[in-house]
Every structure is written in C-alpha cells, then in structure tokens.
Design brief:
The protein is 49% helix and 6% strand. It is mainly alpha-helical and 235 residues long.
Length: 235
C-alpha cells in the first residue's frame, strides 16, 4: 500500500478518533519516514522524534504505546538503541464502532466490586503477581548487600542520544562536535569511567559540566580538562 493510501485510510478509519494530537503527529511522521525509506520499517530514537516534533521522551513513549494499542504500528525497543517501528497496513477499519459497543455494555452492566486484601485469607494456590522493583527497593538492595559491584550508570547512551543532548545545552557550538564525539568515545572505551577511574553515574551532568572546557579547547586548540595541572598545597 502506498504512502498516500495509508494516510487516506487513517483519516477514514476509527483509530484517529481514539488518539491524541501527539500520537497523530508521531504516526504521520513515521509514515513520512517510511515513505522516504520506500518501505514500512523505520528505525529512530525517541530523542530524534522529540527534537523534530518538540516533545519530551516521556511523551513520545506514551504516544508510541497508544499507537501500538490502536493497531497502527508495531515496535521493538531496547535500552541504548533506537526504536524499530513497523507500519501496519491491514489494521481494522471498525475499531471506533467496537469501542462504542464496549462503552455501551459497560454502562448497562453493574460495576464489578473491588475485592480488598484480607490478611486472613490463605494464599496457597493463588498465582504469584510479579511487580517491578522500585528505585528505592533497588537502592536498599545495593546498600544491604556488600557483594554487589559499585554503583554504575544504569543506561548507557548511544552516540546519537549523546549528541542530541549536547545540542540542547547552553553554550553548545557546532565547532565542538568533533571534541564531543571524542569525549563520548573516550568514556565508552573506558567502560563509562572518568580519567580517575571513577564510574560516571550521570553522563548528562558530566557532559554539561565539561562543555565549557570543550569550548575553551576548540577556541584556542590547547586547553582541555585533561591539560589542567594538578597543584599540590604546600606542606
């Protein structure tokens, strides 16, 4: 199915009425990229979508989930890599009608009572419910278990995300691109540790603090953070 036909089908079908303006904008942008690639597969990061459409990564993720639930796209996302999308061509046209029927049934049916937790009820035979660990729980595990390795950065950025963040920093100049890429390569090759061997737990903060030194180096071709001498206090 061609690009124009997919757009025409979208405006004539049900899913558009269920989506917010953000999800609609992202879907049309993905269609445009798919058309540029002459196919139905698109690989792009949340940061790149956000920069183009003026959205935050959290908003992009929420809208992406809405597109998946509406049957318009399928996607695969891995930490540290760009998201891979697949444009769905044969999604049903009567989704909107089905949703209206479900809403009508919910109005006619009584509400299902919520069963509150009873400490006296036996738990044998009940399926176990797996809940994701919160950040606080993970931190407690770290401090209570002395065998755990020292704290390191949880999510290591790809070069595209690293550069996209640099573009947004105050004081960034295009002439810094090469130096910023070199810093990325240095940190990545050193397993995301600084020159002193300490883990970089917040790469965004580290890059932001380092930007003035990178600017100085690009201005005069000499000064850098590594070139600052260590001055020992007198005894």
């Amino acid at each position: 199915m061609y690009y124009q036909e997919l757009i025409q089908k979208f405006w004539e079908s049900g899913p558009k009425a269920q989506l917010g303006t953000t999800a609609v904008a992202i879907y049309l942008y993905l269609l445009k990229l798919a058309n540029d690639n002459n196919g139905y597969d698109v690989t792009i990061s949340d940061v790149a979508i956000g920069n183009t459409l003026g959205l935050t990564r959290k908003t992009v993720k929420s809208a992406r989930e809405a597109l998946l639930n509406s049957g318009l796209v399928r996607y695969e996302s891995k930490n540290g890599y760009s998201c891979s999308y697949r444009i769905v061509q044969d999604y049903p046209l009567l989704i909107q009608k089905d949703k209206k029927d479900q809403k009508a049934k919910r109005k006619t049916n009584p509400r299902i009572p919520v069963i509150e937790k009873n400490e006296n009820l036996p738990l044998d035979g009940l399926p176990a419910i797996s809940t994701p660990e919160t950040t606080e729980q993970k931190e407690k595990m770290y401090f209570n278990n002395s065998t755990i390795e020292p704290l390191k950065m949880v999510k290591k950025p790809c070069l595209e995300e690293f550069m996209a963040y640099a573009y947004m920093l105050r004081g960034y100049e295009e002439s810094m691109d090469q130096a910023i890429k070199e810093k990325y390569a240095s940190w990545a090759n050193n397993d995301w540790c600084n020159n002193l061997g300490k883990p970089i737990t917040n790469w965004k903060s580290s890059l932001k603090n380092l930007l003035p030194y990178i600017k100085n180096r690009t201005d005069n071709g000499q000064l850098s953070l590594e070139s600052i001498p260590i001055i020992k206090p007198p005894k």
